[in-house]
């Protein structure tokens, strides 16, 4: 089993993360015991690109009639992304991606009156940890932690009811429901070596999400989800009884 993961991030994480097995949060420092935290951990390599390079070299670029935003992101990944066996680097990179995607200034123009800065913090923290999930090109899901099941994990960690947990899930997967946000998401996720995909249909149903390589076989991805989904969701929710407000 992999070594313990320790990373210090720019902001403090919610102490409620301590309710999940295998993760300890003390201020800005996260410590993860892979043997306890992951439901499945088969891969110890991720693809990342330097966030500063993404910020300056990809985010300002616009698609054209001859080059769609997905092609821009794919070309950038091919040129700049490199494999890493350091999960702390993945988490640090993911934090930068999601601090950007869920920045508070967007609340003024998002048209989502029920979304608060607290929700954005929840999104950033949970999505950062989701970056350790991994799916292979053939669609097999190789790494799965509790944050795969976004509403379940956030309900345990932040004490949310089911409705609020599903709202967060919709915000995470939907890129805030407009084309500008989707384009932003495609480009930002190049730092994590792929694009955000999820297994849900029209509504969030805890089928999870992952930053997958371009070209991943989605049919196998969805089939693999069905082999573990119900059991592992129940295991996450089991820890909600420990919530005390």
Automatic annotation (TrEMBL):
Name of protein: Uncharacterized protein
Domain of life (superkingdom): Bacteria
